[in-house]
Design goal:
alpha/beta, four-stranded mixed β-sheet, single chain
Length: 393
């Protein structure tokens, strides 16, 4: 009510005072939590022992990680690791809550590291990842790794300058891969889809720690290293291959951006080339009633260093030989365990599934032999020579 002069009636003051008191007492967000009062899981380790799933949770306090105007380079960032066990992944995750003291938030998980033991149990790995992926807070684009090292060592590893684990290969591998492309980063959803796809051999990057490269002053500084990959073989156990074993895989990777080779690949190279953005095709054919594959690779390059007066055409021929030998060597590394390191059978199933099923029904038709890789055709094109002119012939 208002009087003729537009003033609020005196009788309404008590009611207005009560309404204001109620409004002031209401919180803007009932369930909000201060950032420092939550435990943020940024990486997960998965192990398997005695029919139990063991889950390690790497936890960071984001107040120590955020780069603000008060951020100090070189300041140690503490890493907390929680350990949970259970017959299922949900039970293992829930067991961490018993002693976490703070609410555990899983929405910032960026990487999952699997031990050798759980990789041997392909069905357990599938179920564990399915349980993690179903949890509403965890995203689909989580990086997936395998390791031979203790998971606690991997999850407690820091970056250069004592940066947090968020600034390492574990969480941000793309930066290093763009400068040196060997084993490509893999996301969990892609690995699981390849496990379910017939003919495919999923490749899981293998992460380890090396103490041979970096020092801080005179003190050894351990750093992450991708030293190879685990290939999940459907017929036998998961096999580990070193980076040297898999050097031919980079030439049939669509994601490959930049990789260096010496020509020739010997103790006294004549030049070093940077090869980038390869394009490949895999064709199947039959010879003497046996399955054969032809791999065609086209790759661009440029001269990075020369140690001898050699023509561009000669460099291209030498580079083609190096790439061809690496592809053949990588293929033959998997023959003993029948591991399809080049995913030849996967390409057959993808492009000719009917033919793949016909061959699968005949014993030995899909068995990998040395002669199964029939031809490897490589074309290297040097696009430029850098600051110095090169001799064409």
């Amino acid at each position: 009510m208002r009087t003729d002069k537009g003033k609020i009636s005196v009788k309404l003051w008590p009611k207005l005072a009560l309404i204001c008191a109620v409004l002031v007492s209401l919180a803007g967000c009932w369930d909000s939590k201060p950032i420092q009062n939550m435990a943020y899981v940024t990486a997960i380790g998965l192990d398997y022992k005695d029919n139990q799933i063991i889950l390690y949770a790497q936890v960071l306090n984001f107040l120590n990680v955020a780069k603000s105007e008060h951020f100090e380079i070189g300041k140690n960032v503490p890493v907390w690791i929680g350990r949970g066990t259970g017959k299922t992944i949900s039970e293992a995750m829930t067991s961490i809550y018993e002693t976490s003291q703070l609410r555990v938030y899983w929405g910032h998980v960026k990487a999952i590291v699997c031990s050798e033991e759980i990789l041997k149990e392909k069905e357990t790995l599938r179920q564990a990842y399915d349980g993690i992926n179903r949890y509403r807070e965890i995203r689909y684009n989580v990086l997936l790794y395998g390791t031979k090292m203790p998971l606690t060592e991997i999850l407690s590893q820091k970056s250069i300058f004592h940066f947090s684990p968020l600034d390492t290969i574990l969480d941000t591998p793309e930066d290093i891969f763009s400068q040196r492309s060997f084993v490509p980063p893999q996301y969990g959803y892609k690995i699981i889809s390849e496990i379910n796809e017939l003919g495919r051999t999923p490749m899981l990057p293998s992460i380890t720690i090396t103490k041979k490269v970096w020092t801080e002053d005179q003190t050894t500084a351990p750093m992450f290293l991708i030293d190879g990959a685990f290939l999940i073989n459907k017929n036998t156990r998961t096999q580990w291959f070193s980076e040297d074993d898999l050097k031919g895989v980079r030439w049939i990777q669509k994601k490959m951006k930049r990789s260096l080779i010496n020509i020739p690949d010997s103790k006294k190279p004549l030049a070093s080339l940077i090869l980038y953005k390869p394009r490949h095709s895999i064709q199947y054919y039959f010879e003497n009633n046996e399955l054969r594959f032809k791999v065609i690779i086209k790759v661009s390059s440029y001269i990075d260093e020369t140690m001898s007066d050699i023509s561009i055409k000669a460099m291209e021929k030498l580079a083609e030989t190096v790439v061809r030998d690496e592809v053949i060597s990588t293929y033959e590394k998997g023959l003993e365990t029948q591991t399809d390191t080049l995913n030849l059978l996967g390409e057959l199933y993808r492009n000719a599934p009917r033919k793949w099923r016909e061959l699968q029904q005949e014993e030995g038709k899909l068995e990998l032999k040395k002669s199964t890789l029939g031809k490897v055709e490589v074309h290297v094109n040097i696009m430029h020579t850098g600051k110095y002119k090169g001799r064409s012939n």
